[in-house]
Specification:
Strand content: under 5%
Number of helices: 6
Helix content: 40-55%
Radius of gyration: 16 Å
Length: 171
């Protein structure tokens, strides 16, 4: 029927958009990683988790990959960024060394990353639930154990664990 066809076309469009956004997000995670010292894989995993696989309104319409809310919005209204670069700059500022999420650049696992974000008040979900969402994304990136050591951003190839190469990224 026509309604099913329209819903199917909409779902296909969202999936196609999500793939395009994911590719741009990967490049943005690498850029932000260089600015912050945070593992690009952990940044990307957080963004994938926050956006539901790059399918939510924030990712598709607002250039907001991290669920960043408008100040005073009570956590109900996503901030709109003019571009992914603008978003990346803002995110890098939030995650800067010595800022609210102190020590985030030292996180090597989804659990550590989620713990630091929780401590800084980034999200209200249970910590284990948030970390589990990031872990699912990390498994998708590397096929590795979710709590594999992901190293630092600019030197992920220095990973102590056995490495797997994905493109130019070592995990």
């Amino acid at each position: 029927d026509a309604g099913s066809a329209i819903a199917s076309d909409a779902g296909s469009a969202i999936a196609s958009d999500a793939k395009a956004i994911a590719a741009k997000a990967r490049a943005q995670a690498e850029r932000v990683s260089k600015m912050t010292g945070i593992s690009a894989d952990l940044i990307y995993a957080q963004w994938e988790h926050e956006t539901g696989g790059f399918k939510n309104r924030g990712a598709r319409n607002l250039n907001n990959l991290a669920g960043i809310n408008v100040s005073g919005g009570g956590g109900q209204d996503y901030r709109n960024f003019s571009s992914l670069d603008s978003f990346g700059d803002y995110y890098a500022h939030l995650m800067r060394p010595g800022g609210r999420y102190s020590g985030i650049s030292n996180a090597r696992t989804a659990d550590e990353f989620a713990e630091i974000l929780k401590r800084g008040g980034y999200y209200s979900a249970p910590e284990g639930q948030y970390a589990a969402g990031m872990e699912r994304a990390l498994r998708g990136i590397s096929g590795a154990s979710a709590n594999a050591n992901f190293g630092s951003s600019t030197s992920t190839s220095q990973n102590i664990d056995k490495s797997v190469t994905i493109g130019e990224v070592h995990v």
